Amino acid sequence: MRSTLPPLRALQAFESFGRLGSVSAAAQELGVTSGAISQQIKLLEDHLQIPLIMKDGRRAALSPTAKSYHALVSSGFVKLHQAQTLLAKQASELDVNVSGLPTLLLKWLQPKLKSFEARYGETSIRLEATHGEPDPEFLNHMFRLTYGSVSKSFPHARPLFHDICFPVCSPEFLKRYPEALDPAALPNLPWVEIDWGPEYASVPKLNTWLAAQGLENLHRKPTSMHSLSSSALEAVASGQGIALAQLSFASVDLELGRLIRISQESVRMPEPYYICWGARMLKREKSRDFLNWIIAETTR
Protein backbone atom coordinates (compact mmCIF):
# COMPACT_ATOMS: atom_id res chain seq x y z
CA MET A 1 0.00 0.00 0.00
CA ARG A 2 1.31 3.45 -0.91
CA SER A 3 1.88 5.91 1.94
CA THR A 4 0.98 8.95 -0.18
CA LEU A 5 -2.54 10.33 -0.05
CA PRO A 6 -4.97 9.20 -2.77
CA PRO A 7 -6.55 11.74 -5.17
CA LEU A 8 -9.19 13.87 -3.47
CA ARG A 9 -11.80 13.11 -6.17
CA ALA A 10 -11.41 9.39 -5.56
CA LEU A 11 -11.80 9.85 -1.80
CA GLN A 12 -14.87 12.03 -2.36
CA ALA A 13 -16.52 9.41 -4.58
CA PHE A 14 -15.70 6.67 -2.07
CA GLU A 15 -17.02 8.70 0.88
CA SER A 16 -20.27 9.51 -0.91
CA PHE A 17 -20.80 5.92 -2.03
CA GLY A 18 -20.17 4.52 1.46
CA ARG A 19 -22.48 7.04 3.10
CA LEU A 20 -25.34 6.80 0.61
CA GLY A 21 -25.04 3.10 -0.17
CA SER A 22 -25.23 3.18 -3.96
CA VAL A 23 -23.26 4.33 -6.98
CA SER A 24 -26.25 6.11 -8.49
CA ALA A 25 -26.97 8.07 -5.28
CA ALA A 26 -23.31 9.11 -5.03
CA ALA A 27 -23.35 10.18 -8.70
CA GLN A 28 -26.46 12.28 -8.14
CA GLU A 29 -25.01 13.96 -5.06
CA LEU A 30 -21.72 14.83 -6.78
CA GLY A 31 -23.28 15.75 -10.12
CA VAL A 32 -21.41 13.14 -12.19
CA THR A 33 -22.24 9.88 -13.97
CA SER A 34 -22.39 6.49 -12.25
CA GLY A 35 -19.50 5.41 -14.45
CA ALA A 36 -17.38 8.26 -13.10
CA ILE A 37 -18.05 7.17 -9.50
CA SER A 38 -17.09 3.57 -10.31
CA GLN A 39 -13.95 4.76 -12.07
CA GLN A 40 -12.86 6.90 -9.10
CA ILE A 41 -13.43 4.06 -6.65
CA LYS A 42 -11.37 1.75 -8.90
CA LEU A 43 -8.57 4.36 -8.91
CA LEU A 44 -8.71 4.42 -5.11
CA GLU A 45 -8.54 0.61 -4.94
CA ASP A 46 -5.50 0.66 -7.23
CA HIS A 47 -3.86 3.31 -5.07
CA LEU A 48 -4.54 1.49 -1.80
CA GLN A 49 -3.96 -1.96 -3.34
CA ILE A 50 -6.94 -3.43 -1.47
CA PRO A 51 -10.52 -4.20 -2.58
CA LEU A 52 -13.04 -1.68 -1.25
CA ILE A 53 -16.26 -2.94 -2.81
CA MET A 54 -17.98 -6.32 -2.48
CA LYS A 55 -20.67 -7.52 -4.87
CA ASP A 56 -23.71 -9.20 -3.34
CA GLY A 57 -25.71 -10.20 -6.40
CA ARG A 58 -26.45 -6.94 -8.17
CA ARG A 59 -25.82 -4.88 -5.04
CA ALA A 60 -22.45 -3.30 -4.20
CA ALA A 61 -21.35 -2.68 -0.63
CA LEU A 62 -18.22 -1.74 1.31
CA SER A 63 -15.89 -4.57 2.26
CA PRO A 64 -15.20 -5.08 6.00
CA THR A 65 -11.77 -3.40 5.68
CA ALA A 66 -13.28 -0.52 3.72
CA LYS A 67 -15.84 0.22 6.45
CA SER A 68 -13.26 1.31 9.01
CA TYR A 69 -11.36 3.23 6.35
CA HIS A 70 -14.60 4.93 5.28
CA ALA A 71 -15.35 6.05 8.85
CA LEU A 72 -12.03 7.90 9.04
CA VAL A 73 -12.38 9.36 5.55
CA SER A 74 -15.89 10.58 6.40
CA SER A 75 -14.67 12.30 9.55
CA GLY A 76 -12.07 14.05 7.41
CA PHE A 77 -14.72 15.36 5.04
CA VAL A 78 -16.77 16.55 8.02
CA LYS A 79 -13.73 18.57 9.10
CA LEU A 80 -13.38 20.01 5.59
CA HIS A 81 -17.03 21.10 5.60
CA GLN A 82 -16.56 22.65 9.04
CA ALA A 83 -13.49 24.52 7.81
CA GLN A 84 -15.46 25.86 4.86
CA THR A 85 -18.25 27.00 7.17
CA LEU A 86 -15.71 28.69 9.41
CA LEU A 87 -14.18 30.59 6.51
CA ALA A 88 -17.63 31.69 5.38
CA LYS A 89 -18.33 33.01 8.87
CA GLN A 90 -15.01 34.86 8.98
CA ALA A 91 -15.69 36.39 5.58
CA SER A 92 -19.13 37.59 6.62
CA GLU A 93 -19.69 41.09 7.93
CA LEU A 94 -21.52 39.87 11.03
CA ASP A 95 -20.23 41.23 14.33
CA VAL A 96 -20.91 38.21 16.58
CA ASN A 97 -21.33 34.48 15.84
CA VAL A 98 -23.13 32.32 18.39
CA SER A 99 -23.63 28.56 18.19
CA GLY A 100 -26.00 27.04 20.71
CA LEU A 101 -28.48 24.37 21.67
CA PRO A 102 -31.63 25.09 19.63
CA THR A 103 -34.11 25.71 22.45
CA LEU A 104 -31.56 27.69 24.46
CA LEU A 105 -31.14 30.08 21.53
CA LEU A 106 -34.82 30.23 20.62
CA LYS A 107 -36.45 30.45 24.04
CA TRP A 108 -33.77 32.02 26.24
CA LEU A 109 -31.29 34.06 24.19
CA GLN A 110 -33.44 35.38 21.34
CA PRO A 111 -35.95 37.28 23.55
CA LYS A 112 -33.06 39.01 25.35
CA LEU A 113 -31.14 40.25 22.30
CA LYS A 114 -33.09 43.49 22.03
CA SER A 115 -31.55 44.58 25.34
CA PHE A 116 -28.06 43.94 23.94
CA GLU A 117 -28.73 46.21 20.95
CA ALA A 118 -30.29 48.81 23.22
CA ARG A 119 -27.08 48.96 25.22
CA TYR A 120 -24.40 48.47 22.55
CA GLY A 121 -26.08 49.72 19.42
CA GLU A 122 -27.01 47.94 16.22
CA THR A 123 -25.15 44.64 15.94
CA SER A 124 -25.21 41.86 13.34
CA ILE A 125 -25.47 38.51 15.13
CA ARG A 126 -25.44 35.06 13.54
CA LEU A 127 -27.27 32.40 15.56
CA GLU A 128 -26.50 28.79 14.63
CA ALA A 129 -28.88 26.37 16.37
CA THR A 130 -27.37 22.89 16.61
CA HIS A 131 -26.99 20.03 19.08
CA GLY A 132 -23.61 19.20 17.55
CA GLU A 133 -20.74 20.55 19.62
CA PRO A 134 -18.19 22.41 17.45
CA ASP A 135 -14.50 21.65 17.30
CA PRO A 136 -12.82 23.64 20.11
CA GLU A 137 -10.63 25.36 17.49
CA PHE A 138 -13.73 26.99 16.03
CA LEU A 139 -14.35 28.90 19.26
CA ASN A 140 -11.76 31.47 18.24
CA HIS A 141 -14.49 32.76 15.93
CA MET A 142 -17.75 32.07 17.74
CA PHE A 143 -19.34 31.60 21.15
CA ARG A 144 -20.96 28.30 22.11
CA LEU A 145 -23.97 28.14 24.45
CA THR A 146 -24.25 24.63 25.80
CA TYR A 147 -25.20 22.49 28.80
CA GLY A 148 -23.21 20.60 31.37
CA SER A 149 -19.81 18.95 31.41
CA VAL A 150 -19.25 19.17 27.64
CA SER A 151 -18.19 22.77 28.37
CA LYS A 152 -14.92 21.39 29.77
CA SER A 153 -13.79 20.49 26.24
CA PHE A 154 -13.58 24.17 25.25
CA PRO A 155 -10.69 26.58 26.03
CA HIS A 156 -12.81 28.91 28.18
CA ALA A 157 -16.22 28.38 29.79
CA ARG A 158 -18.34 30.38 32.21
CA PRO A 159 -21.54 29.09 33.86
CA LEU A 160 -24.56 31.20 32.96
CA PHE A 161 -27.35 29.85 35.16
CA HIS A 162 -28.62 26.74 36.92
CA ASP A 163 -32.18 26.10 35.79
CA ILE A 164 -35.21 24.70 37.63
CA CYS A 165 -38.06 22.59 36.25
CA PHE A 166 -41.78 22.47 37.07
CA PRO A 167 -44.99 21.21 35.41
CA VAL A 168 -46.89 23.44 32.99
CA CYS A 169 -49.98 23.19 30.80
CA SER A 170 -52.03 25.46 28.56
CA PRO A 171 -55.02 27.54 29.74
CA GLU A 172 -57.27 25.48 27.45
CA PHE A 173 -55.97 22.22 28.95
CA LEU A 174 -56.59 23.51 32.48
CA LYS A 175 -60.19 24.30 31.58
CA ARG A 176 -60.67 20.70 30.41
CA TYR A 177 -58.74 19.21 33.33
CA PRO A 178 -59.09 21.54 36.35
CA GLU A 179 -57.79 18.70 38.52
CA ALA A 180 -54.34 19.41 37.00
CA LEU A 181 -53.84 21.87 39.87
CA ASP A 182 -53.79 18.88 42.24
CA PRO A 183 -50.35 17.23 41.95
CA ALA A 184 -51.81 13.86 42.99
CA ALA A 185 -53.99 13.87 39.84
CA LEU A 186 -51.10 14.40 37.39
CA PRO A 187 -50.15 10.71 36.91
CA ASN A 188 -53.54 10.10 35.29
CA LEU A 189 -53.60 13.10 32.94
CA PRO A 190 -52.33 13.46 29.33
CA TRP A 191 -48.69 14.49 29.22
CA VAL A 192 -45.90 15.39 26.81
CA GLU A 193 -42.42 13.87 27.11
CA ILE A 194 -39.10 15.67 26.56
CA ASP A 195 -36.24 13.27 25.87
CA TRP A 196 -32.80 14.69 25.04
CA GLY A 197 -31.36 11.23 24.48
CA PRO A 198 -29.12 8.84 26.44
CA GLU A 199 -26.27 11.36 26.87
CA TYR A 200 -28.57 13.47 29.05
CA ALA A 201 -30.13 10.68 31.13
CA SER A 202 -29.71 12.74 34.31
CA VAL A 203 -31.90 15.61 33.05
CA PRO A 204 -35.16 15.61 35.07
CA LYS A 205 -38.35 14.28 33.52
CA LEU A 206 -41.94 14.55 34.70
CA ASN A 207 -41.59 11.30 36.67
CA THR A 208 -38.55 12.86 38.40
CA TRP A 209 -40.69 15.75 39.59
CA LEU A 210 -43.50 13.42 40.71
CA ALA A 211 -41.04 11.29 42.71
CA ALA A 212 -39.67 14.42 44.39
CA GLN A 213 -43.19 15.19 45.59
CA GLY A 214 -43.68 11.62 46.86
CA LEU A 215 -46.21 10.85 44.12
CA GLU A 216 -46.74 7.86 41.85
CA ASN A 217 -45.21 7.57 38.39
CA LEU A 218 -47.25 8.43 35.31
CA HIS A 219 -49.88 5.81 34.52
CA ARG A 220 -50.20 6.36 30.77
CA LYS A 221 -48.02 6.73 27.69
CA PRO A 222 -47.15 10.26 26.60
CA THR A 223 -49.33 12.00 24.05
CA SER A 224 -46.13 12.84 22.18
CA MET A 225 -42.35 12.69 22.73
CA HIS A 226 -39.92 15.42 21.64
CA SER A 227 -36.14 15.66 21.42
CA LEU A 228 -36.43 19.47 21.38
CA SER A 229 -37.78 21.22 24.47
CA SER A 230 -39.16 24.02 22.29
CA SER A 231 -41.17 21.52 20.24
CA ALA A 232 -42.57 19.95 23.41
CA LEU A 233 -43.56 23.33 24.81
CA GLU A 234 -45.42 24.14 21.59
CA ALA A 235 -47.28 20.84 21.93
CA VAL A 236 -48.20 21.78 25.52
CA ALA A 237 -49.32 25.26 24.45
CA SER A 238 -51.61 23.65 21.88
CA GLY A 239 -53.33 21.70 24.67
CA GLN A 240 -51.81 18.24 24.21
CA GLY A 241 -50.99 17.74 27.88
CA ILE A 242 -48.70 18.55 30.79
CA ALA A 243 -44.91 18.71 30.56
CA LEU A 244 -41.99 19.39 32.85
CA ALA A 245 -40.66 22.74 31.67
CA GLN A 246 -37.43 24.58 32.39
CA LEU A 247 -37.94 28.11 33.66
CA SER A 248 -35.49 29.58 31.13
CA PHE A 249 -37.38 28.00 28.23
CA ALA A 250 -40.92 28.64 29.44
CA SER A 251 -40.64 32.14 30.95
CA VAL A 252 -41.78 34.09 27.86
CA ASP A 253 -44.75 31.78 27.27
CA LEU A 254 -45.68 32.06 30.93
CA GLU A 255 -45.61 35.87 30.69
CA LEU A 256 -47.72 35.77 27.52
CA GLY A 257 -50.26 33.43 29.12
CA ARG A 258 -49.65 30.63 26.61
CA LEU A 259 -48.53 28.38 29.46
CA ILE A 260 -49.57 28.10 33.11
CA ARG A 261 -47.32 26.92 35.92
CA ILE A 262 -49.48 24.43 37.83
CA SER A 263 -47.19 23.97 40.86
CA GLN A 264 -44.68 26.11 42.70
CA GLU A 265 -42.65 23.01 43.55
CA SER A 266 -39.61 22.50 41.33
CA VAL A 267 -36.61 20.25 40.73
CA ARG A 268 -33.16 21.52 39.85
CA MET A 269 -31.25 20.72 36.67
CA PRO A 270 -28.14 18.68 37.57
CA GLU A 271 -25.71 21.01 35.77
CA PRO A 272 -25.61 24.66 34.63
CA TYR A 273 -25.77 26.11 31.15
CA TYR A 274 -22.49 27.61 29.92
CA ILE A 275 -21.09 30.10 27.47
CA CYS A 276 -17.79 28.91 25.94
CA TRP A 277 -15.19 30.68 23.78
CA GLY A 278 -11.67 30.42 22.42
CA ALA A 279 -8.48 32.26 23.31
CA ARG A 280 -8.65 34.74 20.41
CA MET A 281 -12.41 35.33 20.54
CA LEU A 282 -12.20 38.39 22.78
CA LYS A 283 -9.85 40.38 20.55
CA ARG A 284 -12.93 41.94 18.91
CA GLU A 285 -14.76 44.65 20.82
CA LYS A 286 -18.23 43.40 19.90
CA SER A 287 -17.36 39.92 21.16
CA ARG A 288 -16.19 41.37 24.49
CA ASP A 289 -19.39 43.40 24.68
CA PHE A 290 -21.51 40.32 24.03
CA LEU A 291 -19.76 38.24 26.68
CA ASN A 292 -20.02 40.99 29.30
CA TRP A 293 -23.67 41.53 28.45
CA ILE A 294 -24.72 37.88 28.58
CA ILE A 295 -22.98 37.37 31.94
CA ALA A 296 -24.69 40.48 33.30
CA GLU A 297 -28.06 39.14 32.08
CA THR A 298 -27.66 36.04 34.25
CA THR A 299 -26.64 37.90 37.40
CA ARG A 300 -29.62 40.24 37.58
Q: Could you give the topology of this structure?
A:
Layout: H1 8-20, H2 23-30, H3 34-48, E1 53-56, E2 59-62, H4 64-91, E3 96-100, H5 102-109, H6 113-120, E4 125-129, E5 143-147, E6 156-161, E7 164-169, H7 171-176, E8 192-194, H8 206-212, E9 224-226, H9 229-237, E10 243-246, H10 247-256, E11 260-261, E12 267-268, E13 273-277, H11 285-298
Parallel strand pairs: 3-4, 3-5, 8-9
Antiparallel strand pairs: 1-2, 5-13, 6-13, 7-10, 7-11, 7-12
Helix pairs in contact: 1-2, 1-3, 1-4, 2-3, 5-10
User: What is the string of helix and strand elements?
Assistant: HHHEEHEHHEEEEHEHEHEHEEEH
Q: What is the typical, i.e. mean, pLDDT?
A: 90
* Domains (count): 3
Judged by helices, strands and strand pairing, the structural class is: alpha/beta
> What is the CA-atom radius of gyration, in angstroms?
25 Å
Spell out the CATH superfamily of the largest domain: Periplasmic binding protein-like II
For the biggest sheet, the summary is: 5 strands, mixed
CATH topology of the largest domain: D-Maltodextrin-Binding Protein, domain 2
Structure explained in plain terms:
This protein is an alpha/beta fold. It folds into 3 domains: 8-88, Winged helix-like DNA-binding domain superfamily/Winged helix DNA-binding domain (Arc Repressor Mutant, subunit A), CATH 1.10.10; 95-159 and 273-298, Periplasmic binding protein-like II (D-Maltodextrin-Binding Protein, domain 2), CATH 3.40.190; 164-268, Periplasmic binding protein-like II (D-Maltodextrin-Binding Protein, domain 2). 42% of the residues lie in helices and 18% in strands. The chain contains 11 helices and 13 strands. It has helices at 8-20, 23-30, 34-48, 64-91, 102-109, 113-120, 171-176, 206-212, 229-237, 247-256, 285-298; strands at 53-56, 59-62, 96-100, 125-129, 143-147, 156-161, 164-169, 192-194, 224-226, 243-246, 260-261, 267-268, 273-277. The strands form 4 sheets. It has a 5-stranded mixed β-sheet with strand order 4-3-5-13-6, covered by helices on one side. Helix 8 (206-212) links the parallel strand 8 and strand 9. Helix 1 (8-20) crosses helix 2 (23-30), helix 1 (8-20) packs across helix 3 and helix 2 (23-30) crosses helix 3. It is globular. Residues 6-63 form the HTH lysR-type domain. Keywords: DNA-binding, Transcription, Transcription regulation.
